[in-house]
Design a protein that fits this description.
Blueprint: H1 23-50, H2 55-63, H3 82-93, H4 97-118, H5 124-144, E1 148-149, E2 168-172, E3 175-185, E4 193-200, E5 212-218, E6 224-227, E7 241-251, H6 261-268, H7 277-295, H8 311-337, H9 344-372, H10 383-390, H11 401-413
Parallel strand pairs: 1-4, 2-4
Antiparallel strand pairs: 2-3, 3-7, 4-5, 6-7
Helix pairs in contact: 1-3, 3-4, 3-7, 4-7, 7-8, 7-9, 7-10, 8-9, 9-10, 9-11
Bound molecules: flavin-adenine dinucleotide (FAD).
Flavin-adenine dinucleotide (FAD) is lined by residues 105, 150-153, 155, 157, 159-160, 162, 184-186, 235, 238, 240, 392, 395-397, 400, 402-403.
Length: 421
Amino acid sequence: MNTRVPPDALDFTPAVGDMPFTPKQRALLSLASELGRTKFAPRAAQWDETASFPFANYDDLRDAGLLKLCVPESHGGLGADYATYMMVAAEIGRHCGATALTWNMHICSTMWTGVLADGIAMTDAQRAEHAKRRELHFARIVNDGAIYAQPFSEGSAAAAGKAPFGTTAKKVEGGWLINGRKIFASLSGAANYYGVLCTEDKGDEHPDARDTLYISVPATAAGFSISGDWNPLGMRGTVSRNLYFKDVFVSDDEQLMPRGIYFKGAQTWPAMFFTLAPTYLGLANAAYDFTVQYLRGEVQGEPPVKRRMYPTKQIAVAQMRIQLEAMRSLFTRAILEAKPNPTKDEKMRLYAAHYSVMEGANDIARLAIRTCGGQSMMKHLPLERIYRDSRCGSLMLPWTAELVLDRMGRETLYEAGEKDD
Ligand SMILES: Cc1cc2nc3c(=O)[nH]c(=O)nc-3n(C[C@H](O)[C@H](O)[C@H](O)COP(=O)(O)OP(=O)(O)OC[C@H]3O[C@@H](n4cnc5c(N)ncnc54)[C@H](O)[C@@H]3O)c2cc1C
């Protein structure tokens, strides 16, 4: 990592807005901004056009130490906490949505097993088992620059948290036998390890979400395969294809969390699902930044035509800024108060922040195109890609825009355990 600590003030406004950052946060934000501006933004069109994975960006992330951002310092990582990750991820999303979204899957594999797991209640035996196993996963990332994916979705109600995962893990001598299928697995073909959520097959034919296991499958494991087309509207560089597991054996050490802990974690740490949002806050910033530059006639390579003198443009920019500031405020409040077992108000704010960012990003991109006009949506400019990428945020489980509304309404009107009959 570039350890140069910037002066007290940054020379740019981060995607999360201006706030009292720590020296470490300033250093990381500067690093992300520099990588984003000089490397990721110029390459973004290429991954989008060919729907291919941004390998070159991952080489840069690895060289900069950013693959080990959330690995604890005691294990050789940069030891970034939840809020710091969320700030840095938004900065990367500002320059390349697909890189930020896939990097989120990788980082979560270290953050869930790291700082989040530290906040989940475990017995002494579970804590000891977890400490031993995560050492192996952290070492793969720190020493070998390994990449982890996070394939949960199956096309059933499981990824929404409403049913047990259909992918199963059966205990066998020395490890687990995994069978099943995942859809929409970002980093497919690029990851070295796939952190799958599956249900323990206890042989009783009564799958239970409390028996969810979080296990890493090496890309080289026998019986593991990737298939399916990948030609979507947006986030094309994520290369999120289907995974198949046919009697895949993995050793006990591949367990990313002890038995039963993922289920507890999902209940204890709702903010773990908010980590998809910074990518989209970054995209909202990108749409806003572009609009300001375009109206000022300052987009590189374009004729220096100014359009800022029209009151309608000024009003639209003001509307975009108001929406962006509202998103930033909710987002920063939510990341600063994220913790295990939040209060009801904190949880509502978290949902509100997630919804505002996921729906707001596409709304700002829509307004950007309407305001800048027809020439702004040509393929050689980033705006149409930002518009398409930003459309994907509110589709992502478990907190799609619909499901967030569902949760907020229900959890407002019903206290835990309350029923009408
Ligand atoms: C670019 C991109 C990258 C992705 N990367 C990953 C990844 O790396 N790992 C991963 O696990 N997933 C990933 N996903 C998948 C994503 O999280 C969702 O699982 C997927 O988009 C769901 O597909 P669907 O909308 O067809 O689901 P469906 O299950 O058909 O749901 C359709 C809609 O119905 C609603 N719905 C679903 N279930 C319920 C329910 N029980 N009750 C009420 N309403 C419900 C939701 O609002 C949902 O949007 C990615 C998706 C995208 C777009």
